[in-house]
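User: Okay, second chain of the day. Same drill as before: sequence in, structure tokens out.
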Amino acid sequence: MKFCLVVLLLLSAFLCAQQQQTARPRILGVPHAAFRVHDIAASRQFYKDLLGFSEPFSIKAADGKLIMTFIKVNDRQYIELSPEAKPDEPRFIHLALETDDAEALRLYVKSKGFDASEKPASKGRIGNIGTGLVDPDGNHIDVTQYDAAGESIKDVGKDMPDTRIAKRMLHVGFHVSKPETAHFYIDVLGFREFWRGTVDGKQAAYSNLMVPEGCDYVEFMLAPLPSTPAQLGGMFHIALEVGDMGAAIAKLNANPARQEYKRPIEVHVGRNHRRQSNLYDPDGTRIELMEDHTVDGLPSPMTILPMFPAVK
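Assistant: Same drill. Structure tokens below.
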């Protein structure tokens, strides 16, 4: 009897230790999205002069050449811009997920059999701790753990001018084509789907999934992957939340930098019944402004169509 009790206690301790080793750390938000740009001066004019954001810090090579710059949305969210190496490179580089333990998340994802960096999480060039993941569709994920000594935390409470068109990055949208990708985000990472939309009433076109321990979300773009740069720029996008679309558009139109933005700025009601307006940066990346409420005050209508077509 004592032998059995000892075995049971050892087995329980082993299982508990294994569970702790493979437990998922918290995923708190979507801290940034990264894009390649052709002309950094034109991009700065769009994001800083027109949209009103600041650029608190950047990374440069030893010769002074820009490697990456950070456009600040709020204390925990940025838009990262990197000069292209060649004109035909995809504009979208990666989305990011914030966690409080980057190394634990790396090990957790590897334990589930998914693609994660072979190197332990480490401090990056602006002092935050990070690692890399890749979802089954090939979308790269920059795992970010804010460090007290990093530039982001040092800049808390700073560089958030009243000129900002929005105070929050609502979501990052990217192409998804595989059920395995939905399994990765929902079952492995713990995302919660809260809305699904359709364009033609025959199949789902969008799926919104919220991070497990926060309010930011990602948007699955479920249509076939387009082939032209303009179409890709519309698919891989970010959304900025505004409280009053009319006031936001008036602010843009009153901005002297509006004269340099040659596209029309139009407002429409999306399939989620929220007012939206699509802007495009100089590289064609869509920056979607979206109100924080529906036009009728009711929940957004949601389709029950499957996320992916049935396999025949």
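DSSP finds seven helices and 18 strands in the chain.

User: Thanks, on to the next one.
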